[in-house]
Specification:
The chain has helices spanning 30-38, 85-103, 118-127, 147-151, 172-182, 187-197, 214-222, 268-283, 299-310, 331-342, 362-376, 382-395, 433-446; strands at 7-8, 19-23, 56-62, 65-71, 106-112, 134-139, 161-163, 202-207, 240-246, 249-255, 286-292, 314-320, 351-353, 408-415, 419-425, 454-460. With 469 residues, the protein is α/β, with parallel strands linked by helices.
C-alpha cells in the first residue's frame, strides 16, 4: 500500500470557513444564484436540466461574512433506465448532494415559483430534520410574479420564505443577509486568514481529453471525492476546485471538463465547459496535461500544450494509467522520446508516468510541481543576466551578413510567473527565431529555468542608450 504523502484540506476544518450549500431539483436556478452571490460567472448556467453534476465550490463574502459557497447537483427522482450508466450517474449526483448537505452549516433550498413537483416535496421531507440550518428561497418571482403561489408554500411549516429572482437580482440582498445571520461569527476572521495565505498557494489545472482520469487524479490529490468519476465521457462539466497540503505547501487543484476537437463539440453545455476548462490556464501556475498512456497522445493534446505555453504556464506531461502499460525494458524511455518528438519545441517539459487510480507516481508529480513553481518565480538580477548575454553571444555570435546582422545590446527580466525577459536589440527586424530559441534554451540551461517556458520580448536598443547597471 502506498504511504499517504499529503494532508487534505478539501473540507474546511472546524473553526474555519463555514459551508453554505445551494440545493434543489434541476433547473430551479441554483447555478444562477451561485453566480449572483459571488458577483461573477463561476458556475455554468444553461436551460439543460441536470447541468451541474459535481458540487462547484468557491470562497464567498456573503453580506460581510466569509463562507465556502457550494452549488450542488440537482435532486432527481425521474432518472434514466435502471442500471444504465446515466441512472448510475444520477444516483451519484444525488448521493453527493446529500453528503454536502449533511456537513453544511447553512442549506438554501431553492424552489421555482409555481412549479412544485414530487421531487420538491420529497426533498422538503428529507430536509425537515435540518430545519435549524435551512433557508427557503423561491426563485423566478421577478416583478412580483406568482407571489400568491409562493406564500402558499408556508403550509410546509417553513419559518420564512424568500421570493427572489436569481437572474435579475430581486431580493437577493435580503436572502444574503438571512444567510449571513445563520453563519458562525468566525466567518470574518476566516476571510482575513484566507487572503493572507492566498499568494503562497500553488494552483494546478488538470487538463486533457475526456476519460483520461482527470477527476480520479483530482480526488486522489485532495484525498476526497470532490469530483464524480464515471466512464461516461463529459461527466465533469464545471471546473471543480479542491485544496490540499503537501510537504507544508498549500495547493489548489482545478479539475476540468475533457477537451475535444472543436468539430466534435455539439452541445452548448460542452462548449461552455471546454471554454471554462481552457480559461483555468489563466488562473493556474502549472498545467498538468493528463494523457491516456495506453491510448497515446493526439493532436488535441498538442493544442492544449501550445495554449499553456503561450500563456507562460508551467506544464507537465503526465502519462496516466501507466499501470496498464507493458512492463518491459525501456517502455517509458520510448514513450518519453516519442512524446518529445511529437511536441517539437517542448523538450524542456517534464514527462512523468502516473497512475491516478493506484497513486503510483503522485509523489514524484508533486515534487516536480514544487520545483517548477520555484523556477516560475525565480528572478535573475539585471547584472547577472547581461553578463550571461555577453558570454553566450561570444560563444555563438549572431549572424554577420549585411542583411542579417544584429546585436543584443542588453536585457532585463520583466516578469516572473510567467518568465519574461526583454532584450534590446540593434536591429529587431533581423532577430531570427533560431537565435530566439538558442537564447531561451541557454536561459533554461544556465540560469536554472530548466522546466518552464521562457518568453523573449524584442525591443529596439535606442541607438546609443546606455546599458543599465
Amino acid at each position: 500500500m502506498m504511504r499517504r504523502l499529503y494532508q487534505t484540506i478539501a473540507d474546511p476544518p472546524a473553526g474555519k470557513q463555514p459551508v453554505v450549500v445551494l440545493a434543489g431539483r434541476p433547473n430551479v436556478g441554483k447555478s444562477t444564484l451561485f453566480n449572483r452571490l459571488l458577483h461573477k460567472r463561476r458556475a455554468i448556467t444553461d436551460p439543460t436540466p441536470g447541468l451541474t453534476r459535481d458540487p462547484v465550490t468557491s470562497g464567498a463574502i456573503i453580506a460581510g461574512k466569509s463562507a465556502q459557497l457550494v452549488d450542488s447537483g440537482g435532486f432527481k427522482l425521474d432518472r434514466q433506465a435502471p442500471d444504465s450508466p446515466e441512472s448510475l450517474l444520477d444516483s451519484l449526483v444525488v448521493e453527493r448532494t446529500l453528503r454536502m448537505i449533511e456537513r453544511a452549516d447553512v442549506v438554501v433550498l431553492i424552489l421555482a415559483a409555481g412549479e412544485l413537483t414530487p421531487e420538491d416535496e420529497e426533498f422538503i421531507a428529507l430536509l425537515r430534520p435540518l430545519r435549524d440550518k435551512l433557508i427557503v428561497a423561491v426563485n423566478k418571482t421577478e416583478g412580483g410574479r406568482l407571489l400568491a403561489e409562493t406564500w402558499n408554500l408556508a403550509r410546509f411549516g417553513f419559518d420564512r420564505i424568500y421570493p427572489i429572482s436569481a437572474e435579475h437580482g430581486d431580493n437577493v440582498g435580503e436572502l444574503a443577509s438571512a444567510i449571513a445571520d445563520k453563519l458562525p461569527a468566525f466567518g470574518e476572521a476566516a476571510a482575513i486568514a484566507s487572503s493572507e495565505t492566498a499568494g503562497s498557494t500553488v494552483r494546478l489545472s488538470i487538463l486533457g481529453k475526456p476519460n483520461t482520469g482527470k477527476s480520479t487524479l483530482s480526488n486522489r490529490l485532495c484525498a476526497a471525492a470532490a469530483s464524480i468519476v464515471s466512464e461516461i465521457p463529459g461527466t465533469t462539466r464545471d471546473v471543480i476546485e479542491g485544496r490540499f497540503q503537501w510537504k507544508g505547501r498549500d495547493f489548489a487543484v482545478m479539475d476540468t471538463a475533457g477537451i475535444r476537437r472543436k468539430s466534435h463539440v455539439s452541445e452548448n453545455v460542452e462548449y461552455y465547459s471546454v471554454n471554462r476548462a481552457i480559461k483555468t490556464m489563466d488562473e493556474a501556475d502549472i498545467v498538468i496535461l493528463l494523457i491516456d498512456a495506453p491510448e497515446g497522445f493526439s493532436v488535441q493534446d498538442k493544442k492544449i500544450a501550445a495554449l499553456a505555453a503561450d500563456r507562460g504556464r508551467g506544464l507537465i506531461f503526465a502519462l496516466n494509467k501507466w499501470d496498464a502499460m507493458p512492463d518491459t525494458k525501456n517502455t517509458f524511455e520510448a514513450a518519453r522520446d516519442s512524446l518529445h518528438y511529437f511536441f517539437g519545441q517542448m523538450k524542456y517539459v517534464p514527462v512523468l508516468p502516473l497512475s491516478a487510480k493506484t497513486g503510483e507516481g503522485v509523489g514524484v508529480l508533486l515534487n516536480t510541481t514544487i520545483k517548477m513553481y520555484g523556477q516560475l518565480n525565480r528572478f535573475t538580477e539585471t547584472s547577472v543576466f547581461n553578463d550571461f548575454l555577453g558570454n553566450i553571444q561570444a560563444e555563438n555570435p549572431p549572424p554577420s551578413g549585411p542583411d542579417t546582422r544584429f546585436k543584443v545590446k542588453y536585457g532585463v527580466q520583466v516578469s516572473v510567473n510567467p518568465v519574461i525577459f526583454r532584450l534590446f536589440v540593434s536591429r529587431p527586424a533581423a532577430f531570427t527565431q533560431a537565435y530566439n530559441s538558442y537564447i531561451c534554451n541557454k536561459i533554461r540551461k544556465d540560469l536554472s529555468y530548466g522546466m518552464v517556458p521562457v518568453t523573449l520580448e524584442i525591443h529596439p536598443s535606442g541607438g546609443g542608450k546606455r546599458r543599465p547597471r
